[in-house]
Here is the input.
Amino acid sequence: MINVGFIGAGDIASTHAAALAEIDGARLAVVFDRDKERANALAQQVGAKVVTSLDALFSFSGLDIVYILTPPSVHAEQIIAASQAGLPVMCEKPLTLTLVAADRVIAAAKAAGIPLMTGLTHRYHPLSARAREMLHAGELGDLVALWSHRLVTLSVSPTSWLSQRDRSGGMALQYAMHDLDWECWLGGEVSRVAANEIHTQSEIEIEDNLWALLHFRNGASGSVGVSWVAPHAHTERGVIGSQGNLRIIDQQRMVGQLKNGKAIELDLGDDYDWFDVFVRESKDIIDRIAYGQDFSISGEDGRNALEISLAVQRAAITGQMIALPLELATTEESS
Here is the structure.
């Protein structure tokens, strides 16, 4: 039995707890949250214990791995503390809020000899992963362009940490990071980005629309567009190759054509539930802990996703084209 400890008991923790409950050989054993009522509520749902301090969680008997499910502003200190306790870590994205902090936590994990994972769940979506397989197998020819557009309605409370850039990192790190990571997972290194952000809800601090253009070092292009104020929800991802193309529509079906002329028709069904990616993610994590293997998504992967997201954010704020890699010694990174 793999025993999991949660730091944080908010909404995303409830989703991860439900996913763990689907996996044989794993259980949520212990929960810590500064809000004791929230910790108790989550623990009671799954029969876990509640502790009142991080030290108590780290010393919990038989603990195998820690999930960090807190606001990003405290990720760095919690990853370092867990590393020093010798516990493997799965940290929700973003890994940290700055590249300096990301380098620090990666170094701490390496010094302790423990695996560190970043929760980039979209890599576990079966159609998104299949698109990468097709592209990298040459079934679409050479990469020409990628796009990922996710339009939803999301109500963000002005008092929520999510609406505060210094705690959440803003829309680029909280939402668009998944799309940016997916495109880089397929397309490789990015040389420069341009972006624009739009605020339509004056009561929240961060943007609620973000649009970016990516220039890959291999000559391909990428487009990312995300919105939290679209009344008609729609998600679409796609790949254009020199000899084929594909589209993933509303995360449920993939259509297109391979370079050999064969039609692509993959359908997960209208009842496909996005919860599936969390189950796949935790199944992968638990299997790798059980067999002593490194995580499939590393701390370095989290750093790369953070870097492209920070570059897009900076491009949107300044209105300038931003080159990568980013320099660490900037006002944003040293603050």
